[in-house]
Amino acid sequence: MRFGYWTPIFGGWLRNVEDEGMPVDFAYAAETARFAEQHGFDVTLVPELNLNDIKGIAAPSLEAWAVSAALAAVTERIEIMAAVRPGFHLPAVTAKQAATIGGISGGRFTLNVVSAWWEQEAKQYGGIFSAHDDRYRRTEEFVSILQGMWREDGFDFDGEHYRIEGAHLQPKPAPAPVIYAGGESEAGKASITRFADAYLTHGGTPDELRVKVAEMRRRREEAGAAPFTSFGMAAYIVVRDTEQEAQAELDRITDVSAGPAYESYQDFISKSQLEHRPDLRDYSVSNRGLRPGLVGTPEQVAERIREFQDAGVDTLLLQASPQREELERVARDVIPLVNG
């Protein structure tokens, strides 16, 4: 199992806890990354939103690609997976940015391509936000341009959403960044089967993930494409010495209350086509992170992780609060039990 974590750029992951002890600054993100790569973590996902959907739209947050480039310069081993939403980026420029950050990192830079869901953010930041299925068609063209720019010089593309004429990009990234993507709608899964190298998903149960992994493997085989290189899942983790302590922490972080942090809830569920719609209690932690059930003693959590391994998941992207301190607990108490 590869262990990863979400780079903290929003001040935390809990919608009902105002201060999680996770300052919104690069120093904290860099400290967390350096600790993680020295203690058994393999990858960090840098999420991309221009508004803060965790603490409220007026709350501070950092820009994902600037953070990714800076992390590339201050780390040595960890994979840096930056999220990118095509509606907020020009694909040829993005290809060049990715090649540059790949060079800074020594080939450790990868992409999580997200077709976007937050209409209000697009209105505030001038992003392109169209109908659900059209967003995936745009994404496919976007990725085609990335990969074409990374392979060819004098690259041409003439599509529904983009036109590129004789574009040059040097130096080429070596290796080309891996493309991760996730989606649950029929349009999303069909599109991802065609363009992605690896599959990511929101949190689910082991049985749900077993079905999802099997389906995406089947789709890929039927398309005559190479197997996905990885299956990753987002999850929130709570590890304590006793079950009672873990349950007390779970009760604390799911004490649902109304407020500005829930402004994005209706937008999220109405603009996405989800297999499992989160209720407000689940939404208290982002990305359906509680659904995997990584809550308990080190032994209980390690056993649960092995169930996901058996289901075909090979990468966990963990959220915790406060991130740096909880990653230390995971590194000390859980990773040795799973991978030792």
Give structural notes.
- The structure is a single chain.
- With 340 residues, the protein is an alpha/beta fold.
- It is 43% helix and 15% strand.
- Helix 1 runs parallel beside helix 12 and helix 7 packs parallel to helix 11.
- The radius of gyration is 19 Å and the shape is globular.
- The model has no long low-confidence stretch (mean pLDDT 92).
What's this, in brief?
The chain is α/β, with parallel strands linked by helices. The protein contains 13 helices and twelve strands.
Question: Key features?
Answer:
TIM Barrel, alpha/beta, 340 residues, two-stranded antiparallel sheet, 13 helices, eight-stranded parallel β-barrel, 12 strands, single chain, 15% strand
Would you state the CATH class?
Answer: Alpha Beta
Under the CATH scheme, the architecture is Alpha-Beta Barrel
Rg computed from alpha carbons, rounded to a whole number of angstroms: 19 Å
Q: Overall mean pLDDT score?
A: 92
Domain count, please report it. 1
SSE string, helices as H and strands as E: EHEHEHEHHEEEHEHEEHHHEHEHH
CATH superfamily: Luciferase-like domain
Strand order of the largest sheet: 1-2-3-4-7-8-9-12
Distance between the first and last residues' Cα: 11 Å
- Number of strand elements: 12
Overall body shape: globular
Q: What is the fold named in CATH at topology level?
A: TIM Barrel
Strand-pairing-aware structural class = alpha/beta
